[in-house]
């Protein structure tokens, strides 16, 4: 999508605008919430990112990517228990996919750092 392209080019304001427009048209578009959450996280706005990931998970409770990214946001906020819980859920839902593998690296890091 164009929003993804904007995010990739670090044009975060334009990406957020496009994701928000998409959600106005299709409020149950969980991927748009997740994408907008990723942009917020890239800007260091972890609370806003977590809100968007939570909305994506309300729409699809089996959305491994949203658990993975929300776990990462919690990690950045040093909310270790929340990070571990979400990362474990991502691994459970997508053990052989990229979300599960990325989440597993986060879990390994939590363990290595004693969290």
The low-confidence runs, each spanning 5 or more residues with pLDDT under 50, are none
- Element string (H = helix, E = strand): HHHHHHH
- What percentage of amino acids are in beta strands? under 5%
Regarding quaternary structure, what we see is: single chain
Helix content range:
over 70%
Structural class comes to: mainly alpha
The largest sheet, given as strand count, sense and whether it forms a barrel, is: none
Average pLDDT, all residues? 95
Number of strands: 0
Brief synopsis:
The protein has about 120 residues and is mostly helical. About 80% of the residues lie in helices and about 0% in strands.
Please tell me about this protein's structure.
The protein is mainly alpha-helical and 115 residues long. It is 78% helix and 0% strand. It has seven helices and no strands. It has helices spanning 2-8, 12-25, 30-42, 46-59, 64-76, 80-93, 98-112. The protein is globular, with a radius of gyration of 14 Å. It starts with a helix and ends with a helix.
Keywords summarizing the entry:
single chain; 115 residues; mainly alpha; 7 helices; 0% strand; globular
